[in-house]
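Minutes, project check-in
Item: structure for the 265-residue chain
Input as provided by the requester:
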Amino acid sequence: MSGKKLDITIGNVNEVYDGPGGILWEMLMGEQIHVGGDRETDILAQKAGIGADSRLLDVCSALGGPARQLARTYGCSITGLDATLRMHEEAIRRTADAGLSGKIAFRLGNALDMPFRANTFDVVWGQDAWCYITDKKRLIDECARVLKPGGILAFTDWLETGPMPAAEWQALHEFMVFPYMETLEGYATMAENAGLRVIEKEDLTPDFATHIQTYLDNVQNDFRQGIVDNYGQEMYDEVVRGITLWRDASAAGKTGRGRLVARKQ
């Protein structure tokens, strides 16, 4: 489990996703704003055993893209929890436009102090967003608290996967506005300490590096003019610099991504 942490708060993350940062990441990743889009959502849903009777909590639900896919595909009922007002309001609007408001509800709130009673959900879910959370142990404890006995925790996240110089670590985290990244083993230990039994943990790092290269290619080609026109050359240069740092770190196996599925005892 990580020992280093940047002085980044939930307010800093909200500033990013209330502004151009949220628009940029949707541009690069689509409205699901996670690596792999629809396909990765389906993989995680199948591993979590989601069905029509499942009551699911999506922690850091952003624009609600995965929630809408899950509701349409599996018929489950979903609550999305997110702390960023623009994301929250946009998720509600898009879900209403999709005719799915009866299946999906969104709550504005903090993942470290969830506004739900214990033993409420069959599945607690996250996709590539918990890297923004300032206290991963408390997050996992909260996920375990709101899960029903026998319920499933299923998530993917960006991870620290290898050693790196302090300056590189700081530059990577500052660009993404991450307080710190966890390791896959760190997450597994937290889950076990919270009373969950780990069913599966998978290192997805090689695939991660491929995706980061694709994001860089898209910024430098398809989206270059749009970023310059809307946000200026300086913003474009900063985005290229930051994603190049991440491309190099992921290609070297220093940063990556993982999937974990665990059951509450």
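Outcome recorded: Residues 112 and 135 are 8 Å apart (CA to CA).
No further action items on this chain.
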